[in-house]
Amino acid sequence: MYSIISILATLEVPKATYYRWKKKYSHTIMSPLEELIVHLCEENHFRYGHRKIKALLKRNHQVDANRKTVQKIMQKYKVQCQIKVKRPKYLNGETNIIVENLLNRQFRADKPNEKWVTDITYLPYGPSMVYLSTIMDLYNNEIVAYKISTSQETHLVLDTLREALEKRKPAEGIMIHTDQGAVYTSYAFQNMAKENGMITSMSRKGNCHDNAVIESFHSSLKSEGLKDQKRSSLSHCKLVDIVNQYMYYYNEIRIQAKLNYLSPIEYRGQAA
Fold this sequence. Notes:
Nucleotidyltransferase, domain 5; 5-stranded mixed β-sheet; alpha/beta; 2 domains
């Protein structure tokens, strides 16, 4: 029998190179808990942090693991969630408010159809720029309606609002909060909202944090649903398909800490 040292000397391979190779390619035997955690991370496309994985372990598999243990295992196997790019933590100065900021960062609602927030985001992943208009119910962060268009015109937000109203048929007095974009300050949008008994609210100009929840959702859509896509790499149809799939995933499957680790649809169903 030859020792490893003798073999390495004969082959003129440095010991450090061998042990580095051994560490890289040696197969680690995973414990059942490690296998389950890695499986959950892969199943959810690495979109969940250790707190949500811990919640899934307990809810779906009756495994009450320590949060730090879950975190260490995720770090060990490099299955941590994708980190969203955060906005700069500064606020621009206030200017004249077109409509009063009635929401005032009170992002919790006591019942469905009490507070809606809406916004438009850019999706630069297809042959031309695409715009996504979304309306969210702050009660359970559920996406009530969304529309995709190749133009950022007023009809985009009108179609989105029309769809939300048809789906939910909310009672008068529901608040809808927007930013001060031209499509939201337009007569057409304000008139449609008021004709349907809605109370309009607007963020202060330059203060994205006044509409932080819907901004965060759009950030999640891009970092989770489109994280592997290069800009201008998709056909329009494929991009629309990805957005549709993510909307279903977000509403029906994706758990949220705010909702006691339930999905928006599960939370609304439980409260009904």
